[in-house]
Amino acid sequence: MPSTKRKLNDDDVPTPVNESSAEATFDSFGLEPRLLRGIRDQKFAGPTLVQTKTIPLALEGRDIVARSGTGTGKTLAYLAPIINSAIRRQGKHTSSLILVPTRELATQIQRVALSLAAHCAQDVRVQNISGKEGLDVQRAMLADLPDIVISTPGRASVNINNGALSLKDLVHLVVDEADLTLGYGHLEDLQNISKSLPKGVQIFLMSATLNTEIDTLQGIFCQNPVRLELDDLEKNAQLVKQYMIPCDADEKFLLAMAMFLLKLIKGKTIIFVGDVDRSYRVKLFLEQFGIKSCVLNSELPLQTRLHVVQQFNRGIYDILIASDEMEVLGAKNTDSDKPVKKKSKKYSNDSGVSRGIDFLNVSCVLNFDLPSSYKSYFHRIGRTARAGKSGTAISFFVPKEKYKKHKPTAFEGSENDEEVLRKINKHQKDGQHTEDFAFDMKKLDPFRYRFADALRAVTRIAVREARIRELRQELLKSEKLSRYFEENPEALSSIKHDHNLTHAARIQSHLKHVPDYLLPGGKLPAGDIGFVGLEKDKRDTGKKFKRKGKKVFRKGKVDPLKTFNAQGRGKK
């Protein structure tokens, strides 16, 4: 039941007032004490707008279709009433099914659910069946009838069909990132799941957007839901500062190098690039200047991707480079390894790392390559300026007349940058707009020789070897292959041998030092000439003797530094 209190109206008649209309707190919702302890452990300041609106309606048993921006707390908004119901419910049965489009999201939601239910683990059991385990293994996982099952639609549909997952006692069904779930070609799976639902199941459709896909899902699962179209948490707070920089394809690398070396970008940064190849190219380029970063892309195994996100969130890396082709998800259906249907191809640019996955305390989003759709742009920049904090989004775009001007670094997707930018400006919210960064490229001229030297070192062979090396390292660390390597030590030796022979881009340690004379407007102290000492080391000068008042070397030549004569013969 929602938390209410009573007050007197003008006729001195007590009337109930929902506390969510006032300054709501988690305690005001009437949740179970053990669940409240789990929420307090997460150190939330208080419920967000979507939580304030959703939780009371959910406790009333209403079907809910909610749109709320990324980072506004949608996961807790539906997990709190679900866990609250599971604590109060008696008996062993699966009461909640949560459907998500990707394994990454499933693992993330499982982690949140376990942390919220930490003080009632005996009464609330959570199982994630979105992984690549065999169906026999998943049947065993479901045999214990966990209270909450988290899955992709494909896996859930298969387990329902073979009888491993029973929905006869289901109470809650959640479709998280609902528009994205449908866009991944899961329509048939979702229709199959809907046919197995008992009557009276409470439905949650949660998404960052409300569009025709949500209307389709609403028609499949619920008839008369409450629709919550909530503004992003940051609408009346500090908005993302958006900057645009027109540049050549090669100047993207120069700008990125200068921004990090000169500390123009501070704090944790996500760099979005167009494909896997460019993610490694940018990483290897930044390494030339001693700038460390990690890569997130579809080639990496699931556990590796999750590990990369955790390292970034913990601050081990301050720069994360994310590829944007189907984002981190690749061109395949993530739970069945079957190709995405052609009719869903249009959704490929509105997915992946820019949606769903939690990145903590991101200060800046750098669009090294603009996405091919304005929607993906807004999802990308939604990774920063979350929970009332400020943030910056910097985007490089290639004007039409500069497209493929520098072919070695050109990216095919940049051909339509101007059109994408026009749509971005057209769909800005009230109070938001893009600004010209007004970067004076002439000030970067002193860096150009260093930039060119580093870029030459990042060859196509170096990029390919970097990709191979990363995959080889994952093979060596794989727990699933450890048994195989024990039985086949020659295979392990071969991989280690190849690993030692693999070299990526040549690291030039001198490039990470930035002498003052390279700085825009910088000025050296009098007599200082960079890293060369002011006085010549006396141990290297050799013996000197006088001849007619002049200093000469042993071989009889006059010191040219004392005569200002290039020939070293003295003044005439």
UniProtKB/TrEMBL annotation:
Instruction: List, for all copies, the residue spans of the domain called DEAD-box RNA helicase Q.
Output: 24-52
Per the annotation, the residue ranges of the short sequence motif Q motif are 24-52
Q: Note the SMART domains from the entry.
A: DEXDc, HELICc
Q: What sections of the protein cross the membrane?
A: none
Chemical reaction(s) catalysed: ATP + H2O = ADP + phosphate + H(+)
Q: Which GO terms describe its biological process?
A: gene expression; ribosome biogenesis
The segments labelled Disordered in the record are 1-21
Q: Which InterPro entries match?
A: DEAD/DEAH_box_helicase_dom (IPR011545), DEAD_box_RNA_helicase (IPR050079), Helicase_ATP-bd (IPR014001), Helicase_C-like (IPR001650), P-loop_NTPase (IPR027417), RNA_helicase_DEAD_Q_motif (IPR014014)
Chief place where the protein resides: nucleus
Q: Report the subcellular localization.
A: Nucleus
Keywords of this entry: ATP-binding, Helicase, Hydrolase, Nucleotide-binding, Nucleus, Ribosome biogenesis, RNA-binding
Q: Tell me, what is one Gene Ontology molecular-function annotation carried by this entry?
A: RNA helicase activity
Q: What is its EC number?
A: 3.6.4.13
| Residue span(s) of domain Helicase ATP-binding | 55-228
Q: Which residues form the Helicase C-terminal domain?
A: 239-445
GO CC annotations, alphabetized: cytosol; nucleus
Its job: ATP-binding RNA helicase involved in the biogenesis of 60S ribosomal subunits and is required for the normal formation of 25S and 5.8S rRNAs.
Please report which protein family the annotation says this sequence is part of: Belongs to the DEAD box helicase family. DDX56/DBP9 subfamily.
- The entry's protein name is RNA helicase
Native organism: Polyplosphaeria fusca
Lineage runs: Eukaryota, Fungi, Dikarya, Ascomycota, Pezizomycotina
